[in-house]
């Protein structure tokens, strides 16, 4: 099934590790086959992995984009997830953690990333920050 991306002027996104930037007008892009795609709002730079939930998100993102050693990224993910689960007591959040782990083990990285956004929202609420998850990820892409 094709994936249609509606792009804002100048919006960046990553397709299979390549950073692509839209021109000066709105555009639509249709991908006809399976590809690893992340929009600008979902891209996290290493220095932005600054909280426990973000440190779970970051290695999943690397695995999804194929930008790092899979074993190393998986090990980092597993360690960070175990730490997070060790301090959380909310059953719904723990269930999300288990679901994220299952999706990562099944190489369903994009689904795991979207679930991880729920962890970041939970963390944000617990830390008392007013930012929503959509605002918590940077509004920029990586330079290519």
Kindly, what is the distance between the CA atoms of the first and last residues, rounded to a whole number of angstroms?
A: 28 Å
Average residue pLDDT: 86
Strand order of the largest sheet: 3-2-5
Number of domains: 2
What is the N-to-C succession of helices and strands? Answer: EEEEEHHHHH
Mass-distribution shape: globular
Low-confidence runs = 130-144
Count helical runs. Answer: 5
The share of residues in extended strands comes to 5-15%
Helices and strands: which structural class? alpha+beta
Helical content class: 40-55%
Oligomer: single chain
Computed CA radius of gyration, to the nearest angstrom: 16 Å
Let me know the number of strands: 5
- Main sheet: strands, sense, barrel: 3 strands, antiparallel
What can you tell me about this protein's structure?
This protein is 49% helix and 15% strand. The chain has 144 residues and is an alpha+beta fold. The longest helix has 19 residues. Helix 2 packs antiparallel against helix 3 and helix 3 packs antiparallel against helix 4. The chain is built from 5 helices and 5 strands; from the N terminus they run βββββααααα. The protein has 2 domains: 40 residues; 84 residues. A hairpin with a 2-residue loop joins strand 2 and strand 3. The strands form 2 sheets. It has a 3-stranded antiparallel β-sheet, with no helix packed on it. It is globular, with a radius of gyration of 16 Å.
């Amino acid at each position: 099934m094709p994936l249609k991306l509606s792009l804002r002027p100048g919006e960046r996104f990553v397709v299979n590790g390549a950073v692509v930037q839209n021109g000066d007008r709105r555009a639509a892009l249709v991908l006809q086959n399976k590809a690893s795609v992340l929009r600008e709002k979902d891209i996290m730079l290493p220095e932005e992995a600054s909280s426990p939930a973000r440190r779970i998100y970051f290695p999943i993102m690397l695995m999804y984009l194929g930008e790092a050693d899979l074993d190393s990224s998986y090990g980092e993910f597993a360690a960070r997830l175990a730490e997070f689960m060790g301090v959380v007591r909310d059953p719904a959040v723990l269930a999300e953690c288990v679901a994220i782990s299952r999706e990562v083990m099944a190489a369903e990285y994009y689904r795991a990333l979207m679930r991880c956004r729920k962890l970041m929202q939970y963390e944000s609420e617990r830390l008392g920050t007013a930012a929503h998850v959509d605002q918590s990820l940077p509004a920029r892409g990586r330079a290519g």
